[in-house]
Amino acid sequence: MSDQCLATISQVQALYNDACVTKYAEMMDADVGAHSEDLRLFLDGLLPGIIADGSCGTGHLLEVLAGPDSTSRELLGLDLSPSMVAFATSKVPGASMCHCDMRDAGFLAEGAAAGIVNCFAIHHVTYEDAKKTFAAGHQALKRPRETVFAEFDMNMSFRIYEKQ
Fold first, then answer.
1. Which CATH number covers residue 55?
2. Which residue from 114, 120, 66, 112 is spatially nearest to 93, judged by alpha carbons?
């Protein structure tokens, strides 16, 4: 894997601007709902606590993770794009939102999170930054720590590779 970013931070921020948000949200509306059950598997057996989305975009995964009773979990959405954070804030008003870079390890204290998802942005960073992002996320997880490796492919199929 190359250590080259697919785009610079400023390019990513420019790509996910106000003009893009509505189209991105429409795409997610059409696709994410089909995977609600897969995302619910992620919740099975998690300890009580924060669930963070390291690349929340328009908030679609947070909305699914909140479920019908959005008061049952504390949700935290992080995104590099201020436009995405603004949209996600209106979509999931019960979640806390943070305009920040997922590579900044300080967004959660050690052991503060019950679970962390990061589905749609890790491809924007270098291999080394991806390793740092996953390591920081792992440190933020409560014990016993549970790591889930999963991906959405280009057809939006969701696969869990490892849950231990």
1. 3.40.50.150
2. 66
Domain of residue 131, residue span: 9-163
Report the length, in residues, of the chain: 164
pTM of the model as a whole:
0.78
The token duo for 71 is: 């008061």
Split into its structural domains, the chain has a count of: 1
pLDDT tens, the chain, 164 aa long: 344 445 566 666 666 777 788 888 888 887 777 767 777 777 777 778 888 998 899 998 888 888 765 556 799 999 988 999 999 999 999 899 998 888 776 778 888 888 888 877 777 778 888 888 888 888 888 876 655 555 555 444 444 444 44
CA distance 80 to 163: 27
Residue 126 located in a structural domain: yes
Would you say residue 147 lies in a domain? yes
CA distance 22 to 28: 10
